[in-house]
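Review form for a predicted model. The reviewer records the input and the model, then writes brief findings.
Reviewer: anonymous (R2)
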Amino acid sequence: MKKILTANYLLSGKVIYLTSDKKWVENSEDAVVFNNQEDADNALAFTDTQINILQSAYLIDVLLTAKGVPKPKSNQELIRATGPTNYFHGKQTEKN
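Model under review:
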């Protein structure tokens, strides 16, 4: 089991991920990876204290690259992590 915690910023709607020091970042590669259900559930419970910051928190399955970087396992979460697929927008413009 390898999971990361994702949500959306309440005001902007941007996709965010939880880091090991309980900060929210926009890059899934910086997210803390949970290897057991108890730690994942505790992190999810932490989001109850963040209701003024985020919405719709949930855990997603990830695969680790050869360098140990988490990548969303599902196509839906890959698209969500990188933004729209029909034009460069948001995070995609930063990579060009």
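Findings: The chain has a mean pLDDT of 91.
Further findings: The longest strand covers residues 54-64.
Recommendation: see findings above.
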